[in-house]
Amino acid sequence: MEQKRRRSSVGTGTPRRAGIQTEAARRRPGSPDGSRGRAESPNGARRRPEDSGGSRGRTKGQSKERRRPESGSSYRARRRRRNERLRRLLPVFLLLLIIACFGGTLLLYRANRQSAAPDVTVDLEQLDSPYAVLLDRGSGEILASKKGSERIYPASLVKIMTVLTALENLRDLKKTVTLSYDYFQELYDRDASRAGFEPGEEARIIDLMYGAILPSGAECCRELALQCSGSEEAFVGLMNEKAEKLGLSGSHYCNSTGLHDPDQYATAEDIARLLNAALKNKTFYKIITSKSYTVPASNVHPDGFTFHGSMFSAIEDPSLPGGQILGGKTGYTDNAGRCLASFAEVNGREYILVTAGFPAEPRSEQYHIDDAFRAYRQIGDAAR
């Protein structure tokens, strides 16, 4: 009996220990069955870690290649090559830096030079026109004035504001419109200057703008007003709003053409500032500096037609000492006399001269143009 007990205890102990070892083996990390060490293949042969299906030695199912560490000599060689390239590029960087600094300094110098009013003396009392103003475009300052702040009748100088207002409110300058019949009879009755368009004629907006400035066409102004605002009254409201924005406190507009109205007035100083503002518009600058313009073929003029600038038509040679007259707008009514708003480049700077009130006599047609030459020549002669 005693021997049987011993055999049974021995017999039952071995499985118990084996069970404990198996449970412990399950708890060991490192392999699917909990065993440590290398995995075995189904036939009992041990496999390398890289051959197993586990996570060791693999990244996303691909074997990981080992990189050889870069030797010190190859690293130093690569670094020397990089430093050599930098040394070669350094002079180029320095040269570009010098050019940038010099260019910036030059631009700043020119900007300061242009913004400062030049030290010139012009005697406007030598002019025959009773009203005159000389303005420096770079600084916007009035350099000389002869009753420049007194009210005058602006005549066709009003058309500077007309075209500027239209430019700022009409986007499609190549749009074709048909000139209305409504206003032509009034223009005939008042003997208004015209560019040559006829009632019912088709023309582009840009054609009308050239026609308003160069030959001073009143029909162009009236059509621009209609296209922009639907009526001349509404358009005049825009003109006066623009005058207020520009600070033209001495100006008031009643129509788009400049035909005489006792309530329509300006000052020579206001007109000079208005022209200076208008010249900042590239399209206006191109228009007023043109000597002529050809209108393309239309339903009324199958061959088109050409008109010429009224100021340039009265000038044989726009040259001046140190420069030339670049452009201008003439004006005339019996009440306003002869008027001219011109601008010129003299010794590298641009100036605006406005003259008004020259007596409306047959012999005086050219004299207000001569006033412009007298003023600009004083600037050129002073630099000699």
Please render the helix and strand layout as text.
Elements: H1 2-27, E1 58-59, E2 62-63, H2 72-115, E3 131-136, E4 142-146, E5 151-152, H3 158-169, E6 176-178, H4 184-189, E7 202-204, H5 205-213, H6 218-229, H7 232-245, E8 266-267, H8 268-278, H9 282-288, E9 292-295, E10 305-308, H10 310-313, E11 319-320, E12 323-333, E13 337-346, E14 349-358, H11 367-382
Antiparallel strand pairs: 1-2, 3-4, 3-14, 5-8, 6-7, 9-10, 11-12, 12-13, 13-14
Helix pairs in contact: 3-6, 5-6, 6-7
Brief description of this entry?
With 384 residues, the chain is an alpha+beta fold. It has helices spanning 2-27, 72-115, 158-169, 184-189, 205-213, 218-229, 232-245, 268-278, 282-288, 310-313, 367-382; strands spanning 58-59, 62-63, 131-136, 142-146, 151-152, 176-178, 202-204, 266-267, 292-295, 305-308, 319-320, 323-333, 337-346, 349-358. It contains eleven helices and 14 strands.
Helix/strand class: alpha+beta
Strand order of the largest sheet: 4-3-14-13-12-11
CATH H-level superfamily title of the domain at 117-382: DD-peptidase/beta-lactamase superfamily
Per DSSP E runs of 2 or more residues, the count of β-strands stands at 14
CATH topology of the domain at 117-382: Beta-lactamase
Radius of gyration over all CA atoms, rounded: 45 Å
**pLDDT averaged over residues:** 83
Uncertain ranges: 1-45, 49-64
Largest sheet: 6 strands, antiparallel
Q: For the terminal residues, how far apart are their CA atoms?
A: 146 Å
Query: How does CATH name the architecture of the domain at 117-382?
Result: 3-Layer(aba) Sandwich
Helical residue percent band: 40-55%
- Give the overall form: globular
Q: Give, in order, the helices and strands.
A: HEEHEEEHEHEHHHEHHEEHEEEEH
CATH class placement of the domain at 117-382: Alpha Beta
